[in-house]
Amino acid sequence: MRLLICGATPLGAYLAAHFRFLNQQAVWLVDAQTADAVTRAGGIEVRSPSVHRRATDVRVTTSPDEAFAAEYDAIFFVMQAYQTASALSQMRRHLKAAPPIVALQRGVGGAEQIESAYGVGSVIRGALSAVISSPIVNKQWALENVVQMGVGGVGLADDHPFSREIAALLWAAYLPVMLDNGRDLQWSALLWQLQANAVPALVDLSADDVYNSPSLFAIEHRQLLEALGIVQALKVRLIDLPDAPINLLTTQLQTLPAALLPSRMVRTPAPPSLRVELEFGAANSEAAYLNGAIAIQANDLKLRAPINHALALALQDIAERRALWSQFQRSPRMLEALIGAAGG
């Protein structure tokens, strides 16, 4: 198939390499620094329980004009969620009608932006539980190397004519895939992705450190309970994703005493993605599509989500240089004060 991958992320590197292994006609749209690194390295080296191999002759481009001028059977959106609007703006200059766009991004909101640009039926909603990473060098992913932990996979919406063909392609790339209702999959994944993410990011500690701190875990616990309440108010059917027992997580949150949760609660093995953003010095934050999505839905439902709202705003303020990360780093009391001021 003729495929375009949009986004300089570890998932983008993983797909570019595996599509090359599968002899697909794939183009990967990235920034100049990533393109140079991949060229110098002679391709992308992939390490996983199933594969240790270098993909050579990976076709990369840094030109949106060149990328979007060609014809494709599918386009994969794997960029950060906050980069979606910019990518769509560039696409619209060349593609008045688009092939199926597979939205494999964290959080909620990207698929809606795609539908707003290209109409209902233009997007195949995806939900991620796969753990794929790259080394960080000089505050940048070294995407010429990509590591898959061998856990997790992808959920895809089952309501698109092209869904099963995309699912087969991802299975061939060693990503377990399940098909189900796209909206339910995305909100289920959101709950999984909220775990050990915003709190470790703000205080610049590991997930284990947060879970071993009674005061920090109290905030973590309350943000998850708050999010679960909003997801349930939306009447979402929570769905287990590959290696992501989301229904077990919700049962534990609702039934186990808070004192027992840190040692017994199922957890995502993924590193805190929001902390990586702050380490990069990114000018924006996916928190708007994670904790922020909970706060937005709470407002629409005339409910409250003060903890998720406060976490999203704090991370966005740091990314946009309205606040200093150093105020929160290794400072649980600062975070506690923030949550208290927010009414949480």
Name the poorly predicted regions. none
Sketch the major β-sheet: 8 strands, mixed
Distance between the termini: 50 Å
Beta content comes to: 5-15%
**Number of separate domains:** 2
CATH architecture of the largest domain: 3-Layer(aba) Sandwich
N-to-C series of helices and strands = EHEHEEEHEHEHEEEEHEHHHHHHHHHH
How many distinct helices?
16
Beta strand count: 12
The spatial strand order of the largest sheet comes to 5-2-1-6-7-8-11-12
Which class of the largest domain in CATH terms?
Alpha Beta
Percent of residues in helical segments? 40-55%
Task: Give the overall form.
Answer: globular
Short description:
With 344 residues, the protein is of the alpha/beta class. 45% of the residues lie in helices and 14% in strands.
Description of the molecule:
This protein has helices at residues 10-21, 32-41, 64-69, 84-92, 110-118, 163-172, 182-194, 198-203, 207-211, 214-233, 246-255, 261-264, 273-280, 291-300, 306-319, 332-341, and strands spanning 2-6, 25-29, 44-47, 52-55, 60-61, 74-77, 101-103, 123-128, 132-133, 145-148, 154-157, 177-180. With 344 residues, the protein is α/β, with parallel strands linked by helices. It folds into two domains: 2-180, Rossmann fold; 188-341, N-(1-d-carboxylethyl)-l-norvaline Dehydrogenase, domain 2 (Orthogonal Bundle), CATH 1.10.1040. The strands form two sheets. An eight-stranded mixed sheet has the order 5-2-1-6-7-8-11-12, sandwiched between helices. It has a four-stranded mixed sheet with strand order 4-3-10-9, with helices on one face. Helix 4 (84-92) runs parallel beside helix 5, helix 7 (182-194) packs antiparallel against helix 10 and helix 10 packs across helix 14 (291-300). The protein is globular and about 50 Å long. The termini are far apart. The model has no long low-confidence stretch (mean pLDDT 95).
